[in-house]
Amino acid sequence: MNELYPLKFYPIIKEIIWGGNKLKKVLNKETGNIQKAAESWEISAYENNISIVSNGYLAENNLKEIIEVYMEDIVGDVIYNMFGTEFPLLIKFIDANDILSIQVHPDDNLARKRHNASGKTEMWYIVQAEKGSTLISGFNKEINKKIYKKHFNNHTLPEILNYEEVSAGDVFFMPAGRVHAIGSGILLAEIQQTSDLTYRIYDWDRTDKKGMERELHTNLAIDAIDYRHYDNYKTNYSIVTNQTQQLIHCDYFTTNLLRFDQRIEKDYAFLDSFVIYMCIDGAFSLDYVSGKMKVVKGETILLPAALKKFILISDKETTILEIYLSKYSENIY
Fold first, then answer.
1. Mean of the per-residue pLDDT values for the chain?
2. CA nearest 314: which of 283, 278, 279, 281?
3. What pLDDT, on a 0 to 100 scale, did the predictor assign at position 45?
4. 303 and 171 fall within a common domain
5. Are 291 and 310 in contact (CB under 8 A)?
6. Is the model's pLDDT at 95 over the cut of 70?
7. Within-domain flag for 159
8. Are 31 and 166 found together in one domain?
9. Any idea what the CATH number is for the domain that residue 132 is in?
10. CA dist., res. 36 & res. 13, Å (int)
11. Do residues 307 and 289 touch, judged by C-beta distance below 8 A?
12. Last residue of some domain: 222, 257, 287?
């Protein structure tokens, strides 16, 4: 069997009414004739949206096929035993040219009960934001189901939502149950569980090309919402150049940030997991056992679990997100 190597995939571009042109202009994505390119699914094994390899001898094979053949060498021993060929993460870039609908995702328990599916916990890393751009995360005060229903029925729901002005580099963790919406003028990276379960609460009375409003999931959402108020919705972190900084660590994924301008050695011997790099800015060379790869801004790569050592080389400041599952690896934290 041929030796594994870092994998690149063809992005899956999604056209949605709130999309724009930054996937192409900022991240260099091929969007073709799509006018409102809203999402680029970078790595996906979700239903009919399975990523196809674009490089090396595995080119034109899809992600599920290569997991089926290489199994734990792609994803890690415990992860393969738990998920099989169902890749546990969905990795995206999202361009919001207009505000998204107000929505909430169910947790695992509710999702399994209602849909026989996984819930959806996610995080956002702001790649670019126009001045004054805001997003919605949670509530601006402690409420309950009764108060929520009152505001919903009175069409005053926006009054109790928490708005956050954002800029590049901001990070927001969105656990299942948190009401949220991406505002206009924001380009972000999204890391999430492999699930597309979304309960749409309100869509600003928009209509599609046929004049139809998108479906709302009012009753489903009510029991999925976390009504608590939190003191801080944004993730605080500091950047030290050439050192890996943890952003989010949860049961579903760990996401780190690395800003570097020199040679960085990576050794994942401690980790029983695949690793994903999302290049947010700059470019770098990735040296591995049997080859070398160039990675540029907007590209996402999957490092198979069987490959443990890499050297990252950048001659200018480069920023990447490093993503893996650490819950199943011993003695990490």
1. 95
2. 283
3. 96
4. no
5. no
6. yes
7. yes
8. yes
9. 2.60.120.10
10. 10
11. yes
12. 222
Expressed in angstroms, the distance from the first to the final Cα of the chain is 35
Q: What is the DSSP string of 46-71?
A: ETTEE-BB-SSTTTT-BHHHHHHHHT
Residue 200 corresponds to which amino acid?
R
Q: Two tokens at 185?
A: 């003028």
The answer on 249 and 204 residing in a single domain is no
pLDDT digits 0-9 by tens, 10-65: 999 999 999 999 999 999 999 999 999 999 999 999 999 999 999 999 999 999 99
- What is the extent of the structural domain holding 150? 7-222
Fill in the amino acid letter for 218. T
Report the C-alpha gap between 147 and 100 in whole angstroms.
23
Q: Considering only CA atoms, which of 227, 230, 206 is closest in space to residue 216? A: 206
**What is the per-residue pLDDT across 245-294, written as a single tens digit (0 to 9) for each?**
999 999 999 999 999 999 999 999 999 999 999 999 999 999 999 999 99
Give the predicted TM-score (pTM) of the model.
Answer: 0.95
pLDDT exceeds 80 at position 232 = yes
Gap between the Cα atoms of 53 and 10, Å rounded: 6
Non-local CB neighbours of 132 within 8 Å, separated by 6+ positions = 165, 185
**Number of domains comprising the chain:** 2
**235 is a domain residue:** no
Identify residue 156 by its one-letter amino acid code.
T
- Do 72 and 112 have their domain in common? yes
Q: What's the CA gap between 9 and 26, in Å, rounded?
A: 19
Residue 126, in any domain of the structure: yes
**Distance between CA 227 and CA 145 in Å, rounded?**
7
